[in-house]
Amino acid sequence: MLRLCFVARAAAASSSSSSSSSSSRDDVGGGGEGRKRQHEAFMRFLTANKASFDGVDVRPSVEHSRGLFATRPFREGTTVLSVPMHTLALSAERLLAGERLRALQPPSLEDVQRLLTARSIKDPVLGEQVHLALLVAGERMDPGSFFAPYLDALPCPAVNDEAVMRLHKDVLDPMQLLEWDDHQREWVGVFRALARRWGEKSPPVEVCYWAWRTVLSRMHLLPDRGLAPAEVGSALNYFALSTFERAERQTRWRKRIRAAIGAVLGDANAADDYRLVPTLVPLLDMTNHLSSGNVSVEVQPRPEVGSCAELQAVRAIEAGEEIGLCFNRSHGAPFTLYRFGFLPV
Questions:
Q1: In whole angstroms, what is the distance from residue 301 CA to residue 317 CA?
Q2: What is the C-alpha separation between 217 and 272, in angstroms, rounded?
Q3: Domain ranges of the chain
């Protein structure tokens, strides 16, 4: 029943072997020295691209590659860290700007949505997440990718299902275990079908599945162009990692944003192209779960670097305290466990 729980582990081996030209990638999922080199390269990558995290110790756990800790006090309302979206955020639009990835001719969002609809999966947000996962998989296969230091630092497997089951097998009842296994089967089948649709240029299915679990567990829904028009102000501020949303909820977001922009600009169609899209943001995605989160996510304009995804302190944070968001707990235990690899409490 649970034979698919090790698929993500296979993704790590396949991804590493396919990228043998990069010494750091040979260490993906490997020993402490390899992880240390990857972490150091990731820190240099962030600094070189103007991410701001002074006062934050980046201390990722081996299991989830999450862990941010304050090295100094932060007052309520102050910025804890800031990541330029133009250079560092991974969205479908940003990845498809790369010629190498476009040359692989990945399936389009429409291709993905048609396949999901045929499998009775009709949530358009899920379609966008799956599409982003395919693009991340394609990018992962390029050892010279601009995003290589970030991709190398991500955990492989994205979620260690073997460890998850050891910790939670006595928490879930038999029907929940079946449902958890159904998620494995369903999504492995989806990515097998998409890899066939992609053709000979497709990354291995294992890499696509690794990318899917990475996107599902780490992405945020953020504005596709950074901010709404300046007249409306900051477009996004949320306290909980509630980024896996039903299509109806995203639709309500769009309607509210469009109505506000239309009222300000006197044009009901002014915001037709503005929407929230699944996005991976290096460093921001290393925020851990705290049942009482001490930061919120905001998107703000910053001089010289443009729109930034940021963590803002919602209360005073003491030196040594972990920095965290409250992860989404609105879904059932099997899917939440499949998504994050743990049950937020």
A1: 24
A2: 29
A3: 38-238+274-340
Q: How far apart are CA 274 and CA 272, in angstroms?
A: 6
Q: Are 298 and 310 in contact (CB under 8 A)?
A: yes
Residue 3, classified by CB atoms within 10 Å of its CB into exposed (0-12), middle (13-18) or buried (19+), is exposed
CATH architecture of 38-238+274-340: Alpha-Beta Complex (3.90)
The SS3 call for residue 255 is helix
**For every one of its 345 residues, what pLDDT tens digit does the chain have, with 9 covering 90 and above?**
333 333 333 443 444 444 433 333 334 445 678 888 999 999 999 999 999 999 999 999 887 889 999 999 999 999 999 999 999 999 999 999 999 999 999 999 999 999 999 999 988 889 999 999 999 999 999 999 999 999 999 999 999 998 888 888 888 888 999 999 999 999 999 999 999 999 999 999 999 999 999 999 999 988 876 654 343 444 445 554 444 344 334 444 555 555 554 555 455 554 445 578 899 999 999 999 998 899 998 888 888 888 899 999 999 999 999 999 988 777 788 988 999 988 887
Look at phi and psi of residue 15 and say left if phi exceeds 0, alpha if psi is from -120 to 50, else beta. alpha
Q: Give the pTM.
A: 0.83
Task: Report whether 61 contacts 68 (CB < 8 A).
Answer: no
* CA distances from residue 336 to 151, 259, 275 in whole angstroms, order as listed: 23, 33, 25
Which tokens belong to 129? 């997440």
Question: What backbone torsions phi and psi does residue 218 show, to the nearest 5 degrees?
Answer: -125, -10
Give Cα separations from 90 to 105, 146, 231, 234, 289 (angstroms).
18, 11, 26, 20, 22
Q: Element (H or E) spanning 13, and its range?
A: helix 7-17
Q: How far apart are CA 300 and CA 298, in angstroms?
A: 6
- Calculate Rg over the CA atoms of the chain: 20
Q: Which two tokens stand for residue 98?
A: 């790369």
Q: List strand residue ranges (DSSP E) for the chain, in order.
A: 56-58, 68-70, 79-84, 220-223, 237-238, 240-241, 276-279, 288-289, 295-302, 306-313, 324-327
SS3 94: helix
One-letter amino acid of 83: V
